[in-house]
Amino acid sequence: MRNLLACLALPGVLLASPFVVAQDAAPNIVVLLFDNLGYGELGVYGGGALRGAETPRIDQLAAEGMRFTDFNVEAQCTPSRSALMTGRFPIRSGTYKVPRPGQPDGLTLWEVTLPELLSAKGYATGIWGKWHLGSSEERFPTQQGFDEWYGVPRTYDEAMWSASDVASGLTPAIGSKQGWDQKLAPAQFIYEARKGEAPKAVKKLDLDTRRTMDEEITQRATAFINHNAQSGKPFFAYVSFSQPHMPTQPNPAFAGKTGNGSWADVLAEIDFRTGQVLDALKAAGVEQNTLVVLASDNGGESTYPWQGANGPWRGTYFTAMEGSLRAPFILRWPGHVSTGKVSNEIVHIVDLYTTLAHAAGAEIPTDRAVDGVDQMAFFTGKQPKSNREGFPAYVADRLSAVKWRNWKLQLILQDDMYDPPQTLALPRLYNLLTDLREEHNVAAQNTWVITPMMSIVGALKTSLAKYPPIESGTPDPYVPSH
Hints:
Layout lengths: L3 H5 L19 E7 L21 H9 L1 E3 L2 E2 L4 H10 L3 H4 L20 H6 L4 E6 L18 E4 L37 E6 L5 E5 L2 H5 L1 H19 L3 E6 L21 H22 L6 E7 L25 H4 L3 E4 L8 E3 L3 E2 L1 H11 L15 H4 L10 E6 L2 E7 L2 E7 L8 E10 L18 H17 L16
Parallel strand pairs: 1-8, 1-9, 2-11, 3-12, 4-5, 4-8
Antiparallel strand pairs: 2-10, 5-6, 6-7, 9-10, 13-14, 14-15, 15-16
């Protein structure tokens, strides 16, 4: 139990911990976040050619930096992106599930986002792609710390609303009475926005514009990199790629490229777009002082015919199985992060908020619970172990599992996102080193493990009592009650 709460990275620990900047010049920060890229897709994670397309640029990125095999995300898109932006478990922020159209959604303006922290340190900040943390203009990214944005407020499956013909292969041909009517559900748009200016709806989100999103995201992100590199201003580039989120269809330039189908073509495009961003950093002369993160927000797609590959792990996203929680994560920072290293230490997406803020010399808010822990010493090799040993895993607002070291305690059973969640009468315990598929309950033989795992739950409950969570759909202005 030594330093248990510190190891578990639960609230209250970070509030008194000062940051020490490890370098003189603030690094540029680039986060390449793919949408539902499963653990088993990339070559360095056992995919690549096995999935129909090699991924040489991403594999090389891993060789030039550090690769993680126990990087954990939230079960759904909105919660993962909220965790990245706030360093807080989404159960605190009212962002614990994907919002339904027509309902209030998103982060309250009270939250202090990562781009807000970096902006205060003189960083230029940009996001391209999906936001998913606020559908109203009052909660668009340019109201939450970003200088510029090009992308969609919610999600890419809305591109299928207008696909009401057999040729699309997506929805059956039906009459207008039964089909989508934009009078009932307005068409969704791709927006362009700059801080201090009214956002503009550039074009409709449909299957055609969806196919070219990552090309446009890359063009705009690389232009941002070039501009700020020339000006000498540090920058935070949040490149929120659309692929391989359903409908998983490649850019026309990649259609048929692999000969192995649309999914493989998309995988080839993912690798190519990554290479374009990396090439832009090198060409701009800032590669050596840029911290690059490549990650996914969720496990692989589970809807036919776009199912992703989660490697050896069981389950789909929207569950608390390892196929949902474990995602690719590669970190490159020349001169700071070891090259070619692979770690199976537990890291959670909330930790990126705190660690990237540290890299920029920014201070973490002290008036709220922050769940992310500073992983700088671990990432840079000053210590061999992660500063996190476990975390609670929520699916929406249901505490579904707890992870601690190599152990997993399942409280709610759900293999697939389309399965009904079943609360277990007795929790099931799995040793993830010997039971990757979570098939053999060893709780009876290892009751001792329950103590540190329940300490995680207890500490979280205590913290939620001290810092009451924000209800989903809470309007602005929000003022905490504590």
